[in-house]
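Q: Here's a chain of 167 amino acids. Please give me its 3D structure as tokens.
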Amino acid sequence: MHDHIDFVVSQWDDAMPDLDTASMRIFGRVLRLMKHLAKARSEALAPFGFQEGEFDVLATLRRAGSPYRLSPTQLYQSLLVTSGAMTNRLNRLEQQHLIERVAAPEDKRSMLVGLTPHGQQQIEQALRAHTAIQEAVLAPLAASERAELEGLLKTLLLAFPGEETAE
């Protein structure tokens, strides 16, 4: 059985026989999977009216636990985006009444971002749709294959600076 990446690598092998295309077999598939996943994720999130980056903000607030509040700095550091990108996301989410900005209890000069009740409801429904898509994508793999894939991906991820956590 052949896939699109086999076709592409075969073309490269013919066009540049001296080029080592072994990594293309892996990265080509990862990148192609990412495109399929992004499309499926976008379709799953469309009924909720927020974009992927907004989903990430809401999900990060929800997993932070009650009262579902974090500082903007905690959010942009967690999501690996710039403060400007975070500000734009927060503005859009606030306009949709999914988040609110509240004064930090320990320092009234600082602001926290929190889920509104509507935001909590929306992200919980979206998370169910999101995880259903992920399960559907992983369905062709046996449990042992899923565990092996998870371990391999974790090994690769931990090779990047800042990915290892204390917990």
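Q: Can you summarize the key feature?
A: Residues 22-45 form the longest helix (24 residues).
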